[in-house]
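pasting for the record
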Amino acid sequence: MSEQAMPPELLPCPFCGGPASREARNHTYETGCDNVGCSVLPSAVQLSQVAADEAWNRRATPTALAASPEVAKLIAAEAKLWERAIANYCDLITIEDVEDYVAKARAEAAAGGDA
């Protein structure tokens, strides 16, 4: 009697942390996120269940470049630029602008949508 290998334990979804599941479809096998609330719903589709499981469980590892202090400084600097840009944009918008926009949108909707 031959022993069948146990399927590997599936890692959780790398995006939402939800559980993973397996599904056979016609001639392919899919292993993927089982959380319907996941905004990404990633999956791995292969010609064998073992290959699909292995692809699902494979995770990217940080490269030396991404882990370097220089890259971390660049990312932090870009994040600060975006924070400033968003803050400056938000300073330009007043509550009156928002109220005017809402009033116009309501008028357009009441008039049939195309104004």
